[in-house]
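Agenda item 2: pyridoxal-5'-phosphate complex prediction
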Amino acid sequence: MKETNKLGINTICVHTGEVKDVQFKGAVSPLYMSTSYAFDGVDVKRYPRYFNTPNQEMLCEKIAALENTEDGLIFGSGMAAISAALFAFLKTGDHVIIQQVIYGGTYNFIVQEFEKYGIEYSFTESDNIEDFIPLVKENTKIIYIESPSNPLLGITDMQAIANLAKANHCISMIDNTFASPINQNPADFGIDIVLHSATKYMGGHSDISAGAIAATKEHIAQIWKTAINFGGNLSDQTVWLLERSLKTLNLRVKEQTKNAQKMAEYLEKNANIDRVYYPGLKSHADYELAKRQMKGFGAMLSFELKEGIDAMAFQNNLQLIKPSMSLAGLESTTVSPAQTTHALLTEEQRLERGIKDGLIRFSVGIEDANDLIKDIEQAIKKTI
Ligand SMILES: *Cc1c(COP(=O)(O)O)cnc(C)c1O
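Presented output:
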């Protein structure tokens, strides 16, 4: 464990990985926009695509400290991080086990790219560990999970996955975007590679596209070798903005998480809502598991409107909460998966995955919970 990990979470958010302004002693990190640096001997070749400009290098320290790992890397998008991490460890003939429910972009990447390179993959039937075990083969290299998952907030047992991977000499990877480093640190459970779409909670203001990886120095060094060939580095301007965003990560996510619990409890009591999916509710199938492995239950939830209440009309009637394709900003947003993210599936395929037409995914922001509740009440009244 690194020295910085002894600091409290808010101190890490504000101070770890600052670029010191030695020249003028300014309060914030100076932004180094140079794409060309002096050639300083053989070891240090600074160049943006080598992920080692001053702002990139320093921000990686903050990412690592937040996830309790030795090292980190930041990318131009979540998918740049995910694709680089997967391809860094895979070659023709290898096999990957992937959790059934994962982010759509990751799913597309796997089914559209892996075959071209002769990489085998198997999707599990569910997120239960029992469904991963029989899929392990001689050539299995990676076990890939997402927890909580999208859109029904399924929870995967990180400790069990890490143990399974270790026992079979595989690498375990998790997409930790939904929890953020504030609510869950997978490395503490032995997961090898922690992935983030920093476009979501890390950025948090719906104005940055970025990705991040946290892992051991050794794993990061291997990912780096592939990453410099793919070239998915972040511009230093955005690195600087991401550093600024991360200063309030804990404040934002804690508040959003508190709000989400309130909203989940309110929605569960609402007669016009059939069902609420939130790991912080005792009615959630994996409540005990979530309690064991999460520091907070997160700020994403889903709910099913009572039959007869049209999901699109309901969302159009919301005044404060915005319908939006993305998530995890400090403003509350909703999306109806059946009409958007899962629209390409047949109704039968959707129902198989538990996605009804009236399902709404709710990314809870930092607004006052009372105002969010009032907004939902008036929208339901207008819609029915
Ligand atoms: C958005 C998202 C991604 C992809 O991130 P981009 O920044 O859009 O590339 C990956 N995983 C999850 C869970 C996401 O929500």
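Discussion summary: The chain has 13 helices and twelve strands.
Owner for follow-up: CH.
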